Amino acid sequence: MLNYTLRRLLFAIPTLLVISFIIFVILDLAPGDPTGQLPLTIPAEVRAKIRESLGVGEPIHIAYFKWVRGFFVYEPLYWLDQIGITIGDPSERARIISYATRGPVFDLILERIPQTLWVVGLSYVFGILIALPIGVISAYKQYSWFDQLGTFISMVGFSVPTFFTGLLMIVIFSVQLGWFPSVYDTTLDVNSWDTFILQVKQMVMPVAVLALYNASQISRFMRASMLDNLTQDYVRTARAKGMSEKVVVLTHVLRNSLIPVVTVIALGVPTIFSGAIITEQIFRVNGLGQLLIIGIQGSDFPLVQTLTFIFAILIVLFNLIADVIYGILDPRIRYD
Amino acid sequence: MTKHDQVLVKAQNVKVHFPIHKGILRRQVGSVKAVDGLNFEIRKGETLGLVGESGCGKSTAGRAMLRLYELTEGQLDFEGVDIASLDPKALREIRPRMQMIFQDPQACLNPRMTVGSIIAEPLDEHTNLSTEEKREKVKSLLDAVGMNRDFVNRYPHEFSGGQRQRIGIARALALDPDFIVCDEPIAALDVSIQAQVVNLLQDIQERMGLTYLFISHDLSMVRHIADRVAVMYLGKIVELADKRDLYKTPKHPYTQALLSAVPVPNPEVEAKREHIVLQGDVPSPANPPKGCNFCTRCPVAIDRCRVEEPELRELNKGQFVACHLAE
Amino acid sequence: MRKLKTLIMATAAASTFATVALAERGSDGNLNVAYWQAVSILNPYLSGGTKDIEASSLILDPLANYRPDGSMEPALATEIPTIENGGVSEDLTSITWKLRDDVVWSDGTPFTAADVVFSANYCLDPEGGCNAASNFADVESVEALDDHTVKINFSVAKPFPYGPFVGATAPVIQEAQFKECMGAKAPECTEANFGPIGTGPFVVDEFRANDVVTYKANENYRDPAQPAFATVTLKGGGDSAATTRSVLETGEFDYAWNVQVEPEVLDQMMAAGKGEIISAFGTSVERLMVQLTNPDPSLGDKRATVEGGPHPFLSDINVRKALSMAIDRDILVEVGYGPNGQVTCNVLPAPEIYASTANDACKTQDVEGAKALLDEAGWLPGPDGVREKDGVRLSILYQTSTNSVRQGTQALIKQMWQEIGVETELRNIDAGVFFGGDQSSPDTFQKFFADIEMYTNNFDGTDPEAYMGNWVCSEIPSPKNQWIGNNMPRFCSEEYDALSAEMGQTASIEKRSALAKKMNDMLMQEYVIIPLIHRGRVSAASNTLGNVVLNPWDSELAFAEEWTRVE
Ligand SMILES: Nc1ncnc2c1ncn2[C@@H]1O[C@H](COP(=O)(O)OP(=O)(O)OP(=O)(O)O)[C@@H](O)[C@H]1O
Ligand code: SF4
Ligand SMILES: [Mg+2]
């Protein structure tokens, strides 16, 4: 397993390099201009100067080389530097700089991680926690009213777009009832009971919207997988052994059914980081998803390139993790 | 036949119908009458063979015997206790005494459990053995089915089909049952191993005094292993007799047709034999014909057969037949 | 009616001002401001747009600001230099600002003329990519005559010498903080760009780029009673409907910038009674640009250039005029703009003194007139109803940027033109491409490979000289100037060029106004630009906010130090 993992990791490096280059080329070909958002009152000559100062229009191989050097060499060195290990001359290093903020892209990304993890990550966790029992019970009591209701709710959660559920929640809970803020305060510093309550309050709506969405997907997977297993002979065996229904469902069926579900869950983790663009916009959570969208709108290529590439790394990584988990959970799979 | 006169299992009008749901509201629109009124006894220590075409309800009947399916109707006595009406707790207590060996040895073993824990699991639930004793028991069971003791920590997928079936048998034996339903235990195995497994089953039966319900569609295998044989057609028993009587003088047209299809080893006899070829398909168990279930295909059917359902009646001593014309 | 409303709002605000003027600094708690575009940077010289400039206007002050009425008010200067008070030289080539001597930076160090000189040099550095460079156009040198006097020398006569350091686009930054950040190094000074030291009413407390800025009152602000608010939170992101809702419906915010919400939705939000819409009209005009050269792709390199020859039918003034006459501008306003727009017949609609009334006939649609005009000019309806003459059909390719209101307007105009027998094909292009200067793209508004294009433009400040200069011959975009130029219609008239040149030499406001109107009228009567809508700035303000007047000439937050909390 270790060998397999290492081999896969090694293989991932050239894959990712190719991916990064492809992203770069696509972004380079994409129309758009970082000065496109400037007011029209700024004359074209000034725009040309600005573009030049940003380094727009450099030949692609040079721009790519600079970015790769920034991503793989300068940024790691910078962060080593931050923890006290200095290699080389820090002042020589050009970090990857965003066009729009003129600040280092990595600082921006780092600033976004807390709210992304809190809101999107937590909604994923809640989604899973809600989905698993619902999926299990729905399958166990297939076609019961519970199952029908579960199916209906997941259809709704699945097909009604989050901007609608989000807006609906705002109208009900912020406008009408005034229970929760409609705008997420990213500067809130949780340091007391009161601020904790505030944090919880501002997280309720976005987390609920996203959790519903996640739960509907995962509960469907869970249900299908449970149904697959419930009719297997080994379940009958377990019953014939005189095992209690609890043991039959929870140890035999659930454990086997979880294997594919856990994989799906692992594969879904990168989507946490790519954020929930729409939900973030609605509640102004301003996490990684919103950062990406702003980057795209403003043609902030260094930002978009870096973020997309980080997502690519996460996707490759979690694919590997999913495979490894699968191997650990399912004794039938052996990697060597 | 003194050895076999105590009744262990007695089925009376056992029915298992599976509901058919259709439409968005999933309303019940009918039912598959997989098992539709079985009446028979299994005596202590004997092997009752249960034969019939694919889909006639053998497995369903076998599972119903262990109440792995809820009965739609009927009574099922196990040593005089009606297990069809037992509450879950009492049922669970009686479960160790009746076990099942499945058709597909791969599917019946939980892929995520080691052989050891598969065999030991029921011991945790139903006995108070210490860990050490349990380990011993597992190993001795593996011995009993002719498997290497060191396999305890392996997973089912690491074994061959025959080995898996042995594991399945060991598992079934773990709680010292009295009654085992063998649902085509050899159907999925290579011909070369079939004999080994059958011999093993017979060995064990002798050693432990087990009672078998042996389900198969292979008439010659049943002839080899069973004491008595029941023939099923479309959810019902059409003939039930001592194997000697049944094979020598089959009374029911269906049994006759089945037997005529079994090749005889002697080519001369085989050439002269008359083959009864049944016309048409087996009707759907969801919609069985009126009257005799077999009337749509019976070569000798008369008008009465399409109206009146024949009773299972005792023609000679111990030979039961459900046919208006049989005598 | 709308004007009346604005007026009432303004007086209401003024009256509250009277009652709360004695407030002391920081007594009003937190001010919550919502911008649907998030702030990226707090150095306006490197900014990506209005939101950044406005966000930094709370921190940085120029020498003078524009008041909501368009007049200039000294900020860091003691008075506005003019020829009369000797601040502007007779030959119009220099301006001398006297600075207040009681101003200190938020870090406590004194503000001097050196900072002003530095700020100019910072923006003038050719490698810095300063986006206020046009404010500093023709600046030859900036010198400190003494600690509190700055003289700006121009290379040409500048009848309107208030480009540098007037308005939020060109404020004064601190030399001490930025001296290592000149030119190519400008982007590297993240700390300074994210937290400039200023002389304005607030200082940055925390800045999360593309997300939120929190400010606190500047302890060293020059007016000891201001700002009334102790802290400001400027939250970015979401969309205009969401920010507006947070003021008008949930009341979580006090002020929402740039309201762009459909009129009906807005009415619903207003019903909650938590806030008001405030609007003001600056110089933004949504207009149609008419292509006078031939955009036929078969012309290759000469496509849409003067060399490529005149447009097959738009070179006929009757067609252009008919197109304008056929448009019902009232409907366009009603459907797409609501309080954000009013009908206009001028490309230069404001300030008041520059607004011509000579073209007001366009305010009423005249379909019959348009038809008659086309008939007369020989453009007669063909078999499919589309007018033609000598085999040339009146078939128009009409492009604009992708934006739901614009597409709505496009559809309406297409219908109106259909009525007079003009066929229209609509096209919309992603804003980033349309307005972006990508040389390789055929879809930019400068290349204008279409017959008609629509967008909004305006000018900074109150002086239209540079804006009206957009339509001189030398501004025609073409491959020779890398398609840089603002004269989209490719209009070229010696007379117009002469007027423009004359304006560059004229200092008297009356004469300048006459010239600007004349230029505007020329463009209008030639129908090379068809103005549609005078677009206002609309924002939402909470009822608990006092003293807010929407400022169309400067940053909306330029006078936020005067804002107060009222109950
Ligand atoms: N869970 C179920 N739900 C609905 N119908 C079922 C179910 N199980 C079995 N049936 C139907 O009941 C009938 C009898 O099935 P059963 O499995 O008992 O047949 P069988 O005699 O064992 O066949 P085989 O020899 O192929 O194993 C078949 O028509 C089958 O389709
Ligand atoms: S009852 Fe009639 S149909 Fe049924 S088996 Fe006997 S003869 Fe055939
Ligand atoms: Mg079967």
Task: Describe the structure concisely for a colleague.
Chain A has about 325 residues and is mainly alpha-helical. In chain A, about 75% of the residues lie in helices and about 0% in strands. Chain B is about 30% helix and about 25% strand.
Describe this entry's structure for a reader:
The complex is a heterotrimer of chains A (336), B (327) and C (567). By secondary structure, chain A is mainly α. In chain A, 74% of the residues lie in helices and 0% in strands. Chain A has 12 helices and no strands. In chain B, helix 3 packs parallel to helix 5, helix 4 (131-144) packs across helix 5 (161-173) and helix 5 (161-173) runs parallel beside helix 6 (191-208). Chain B has 2 domains: 1-12 and 39-226, 3-Layer(aba) Sandwich (Rossmann fold), CATH 3.40.50; 252-327, no CATH class. Chain B starts with 6 loop residues before the first strand and ends in a 6-residue tail after the last strand. Chain B is an alpha/beta fold. The two termini of chain C are 28 Å apart. In chain C, the strands form 5 sheets. In chain C, strands 1, 7, 8, 9, 10, 11, 12, 16, 17, 18 and 19 form an 11-stranded mixed sheet that branches. Residues 1-21 of chain C have low confidence and may be disordered. Chain C is globular, with a radius of gyration of 25 Å. Chain C contains 15 helices and 21 strands. In chain C, strand 7 and strand 8 (212-217) form a beta hairpin. Chain C folds into 2 domains: 2-274 and 543-565, Periplasmic binding protein-like II (D-Maltodextrin-Binding Protein, domain 2, 3-Layer(aba) Sandwich), CATH 3.40.190; 281-536, Dipeptide-binding Protein, Domain 3 (Dipeptide-binding Protein, domain 3, Roll), CATH 3.10.105.10. Helix content of chain C is 25%, strand content 20%. Chain C is of the alpha+beta class. Chains A and C meet through helix 2, helix 4, helix 6, helix 10 and helix 11 of A and helix 5, strand 9, helix 6, helix 12 and strand 18 of C. The structure holds adenosine-5'-triphosphate (ATP), iron/sulfur cluster and magnesium ion. Residues 58-59, 103, 183-184 of chain B line the site of magnesium ion (MG). Chain A: It is a multi-pass membrane protein. Chain A: It is found in: Cell membrane. Chain A: It holds the Pfam family BPD_transp_1_N.
